[in-house]
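Quiz preparation item.
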């Protein structure tokens, strides 16, 4: 993170702990903070490490025996060089100490529930229960300040690009975006509910109709969905929308904001973000959020096996990945990979060890199914996969999407580096399908939301090949994490009717669900598009964290609980009556 000098302190102190240095030798200073550590030397001398958000400074104190860890203190003394041989190279303030100290105890502390300087050794439930103590740790202080740096950089970029910051309502009406919403009962209108917005999607489109031109917001959003490492009920995103733009324009706006944030956090501005079509991402990596930090790309061996007599390989697609040096995996591990593939939806998984062939210099495959393949087929698999002696080839034969996605997950299982390892690899994924499969009645389902503009070259495919229609939508991916997504929106009534018809949404239903938006579009809606990306996810990746809880001040557990406050809690019977709510026991 680019270091910014803290402002001159005011109030009780004259300096921050982490800013005391050689230039201050001989100067009287006053610092305030918490006792991070106390080391006694004899009966009347103690060394106190005093900590604030900027760092730690050593204070030499007479008669400090009553002070304990996490006591809040004010220390006044004179800065001096540390004696020879006692310099601490691990501290920014390690060349100096504060001597002749006068200590004032501002507040006492009970023994803390865990040792603050023991990262990774404290159960997360304990950290979340005492989050107000956990926030004092160097890790959390660093992450929260990194988050503030990222937010400031995003705002700089947005304002430089002419975007207007605009707030949208938190009490909203049910929206069609798909995720489950949190409902808020209305006390004034019994039986009616607001919802907390999943995103400001419709509100920002209405702002475009209103001539705002370019809108942005660092928005709080809420979704009642299952939690995981990169998902919380409450999350924060950069939300933006612009009028009279195309896909490339929106991607340029977002790229600038993300590059600015990354440079502010790391000191290095990333290179231009490459683009990859959705089809290419699925075909090469088995995922629409590919991690480009490592190779192990999927290989299509279907042409090699087009005439095969092995029934298991008689499928629409036969895909493979190569685990370099994996031929020494034991049978138990190989069987586990087969079960993993089946659990992911494949009919099975074939493993093949690359071994030396009978002809000198040639390679062959050793596998329980090798006898069912001709020598030419085995050689073709080795050559197509660019496999080498000692490698392991894993093969899935199935429908193309299934084969790709199963091997894509196995690729991550076997080769993905830790979050904080390797370079930062951004990539734009473009040309998503407009529809993602069909429902039980054979009707297409919207892949993004029903207001996404179809690709202009694919409009004639609506009638006969709706699943082949591409959308003007795009995702930004970093190291295998989807940062966010966006699209060009439908602003023409005729195209909106075609999309609704394909989805099986009749005019009456469309009016009931989206009437206020469709009504606004009758009054001169400009062409517009936008994007939203998760700030929690971006900050976590920039901080090298595996879980976004580590960059959120007060997160929920995976079960959705707040261990510190006890939320969610129950309302009193009086409150329920006032809201007109009756609890139905399960």
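Solution:
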């Amino acid at each position: 993170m680019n270091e910014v000098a803290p402002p001159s302190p005011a109030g009780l102190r004259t300096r921050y702990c982490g800013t005391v240095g050689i230039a201050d030798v001989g100067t009287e200073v006053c610092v305030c903070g918490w006792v991070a550590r106390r080391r006694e030397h004899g009966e009347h001398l103690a060394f106190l490490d005093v900590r604030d958000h900027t760092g730690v400074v050593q204070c030499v104190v007479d008669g400090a025996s009553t002070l304990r860890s996490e006591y809040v203190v004010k220390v006044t003394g004179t800065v001096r060089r540390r004696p020879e041989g006692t310099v601490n190279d691990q501290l920014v303030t390690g060349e100096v100490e504060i001597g002749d100290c006068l200590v004032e105890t501002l507040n006492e502390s009970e023994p803390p529930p865990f040792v603050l300087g023991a990262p990774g050794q404290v159960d997360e439930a304990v950290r979340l229960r005492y989050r107000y103590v956990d926030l004092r740790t160097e890790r959390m202080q660093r992450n929260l300040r990194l988050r503030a740096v990222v937010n400031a950089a995003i705002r700089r970029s947005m304002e430089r690009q002419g975007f207007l910051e605009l707030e949208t309502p938190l009490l909203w009406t049910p929206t069609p975006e798909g995720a489950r919403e949190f409902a808020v009962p209305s006390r004034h209108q019994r039986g009616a509910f607001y919802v907390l917005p999943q995103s400001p999607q419709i509100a920002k489109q209405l702002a475009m109709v209103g001539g705002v031109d370019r809108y942005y917001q660092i928005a709080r959003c809420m979704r009642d969905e299952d939690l995981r490492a990169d998902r919380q009920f409450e999350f924060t995103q950069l939300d933006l929308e612009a009028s009279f733009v195309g896909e490339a324009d929106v991607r340029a706006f977002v790229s600038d904001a993300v590059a600015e944030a990354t440079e502010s956090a790391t000191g290095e501005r990333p290179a231009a973000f490459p683009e990859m079509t959705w089809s290419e991402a699925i075909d090469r990596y088995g995922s629409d959020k590919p991690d480009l930090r490592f190779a192990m790309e999927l290989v299509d061996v279907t042409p090699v096996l087009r005439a095969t007599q092995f029934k298991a390989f008689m499928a629409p697609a036969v895909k493979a990945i190569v685990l370099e040096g994996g031929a020494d995996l034991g049978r138990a591990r190989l069987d586990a990979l087969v079960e993993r593939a089946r659990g992911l939806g494949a009919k099975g998984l074939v493993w093949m060890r690359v071994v030396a062939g009978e002809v000198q210099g040639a390679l062959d495959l050793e596998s329980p199914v090798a006898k069912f393949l001709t020598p030419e087929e085995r050689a073709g698999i080795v050559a197509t996969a660019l496999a080498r002696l000692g490698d392991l080839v894993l093969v899935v034969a199935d429908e193309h999407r299934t084969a790709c996605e199963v091997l894509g997950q196995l690729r991550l299982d076997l080769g993905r580096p830790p979050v904080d390892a390797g370079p930062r690899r951004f990539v734009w994924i473009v040309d998503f399908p407009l529809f993602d499969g069909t429902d039980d009645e054979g009707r297409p389902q919207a892949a993004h939301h029903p207001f996404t503009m179809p690709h202009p070259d694919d409009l004639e495919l609506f009638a006969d090949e709706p699943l082949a229609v591409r959308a003007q939508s795009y995702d930004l991916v970093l190291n295998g994490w989807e940062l966010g997504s966006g699209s060009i929106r439908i602003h023409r009534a005729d195209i909106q009717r075609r999309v609704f018809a394909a989805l099986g949404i009749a005019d009456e239903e469309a009016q009931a669900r989206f009437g206020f938006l469709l009504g606004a579009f009758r009054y001169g809606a400009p062409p517009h598009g936008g994007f939203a990306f998760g700030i929690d996810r971006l900050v976590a990746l920039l901080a090298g964290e595996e879980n976004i809880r580590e960059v959120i001040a007060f997160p929920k557990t995976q079960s959705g609980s707040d261990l510190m406050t006890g939320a969610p809690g129950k309302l009193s019977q009086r409150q329920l009556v006032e809201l007109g709510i009756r609890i139905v026991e399960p």
